Amino acid sequence: MLKELEQIARDAGAAIMNIYQSDDFDVQLKGDDSPLTKADLAAHQVIVDGLRKLNVQYPIISEESADIDWELRKHWHRYWLVDPLDGTKEFIKRNGEFTVNIALIERGQPILGVVYAPDLDAMYIGERDKGARLNGEAITVCHESPQTLRVVGSRSHASQETTDWLEQLGKPYEMVPMGSSLKICLVAEGKADIYPRLGPTSEWDTAAAHAVLTAAGGSVTTVDGEPLLYNQKESFLNPYFIARP
Question: What pTM was computed for the model?
Answer without folding.
Answer: 0.94
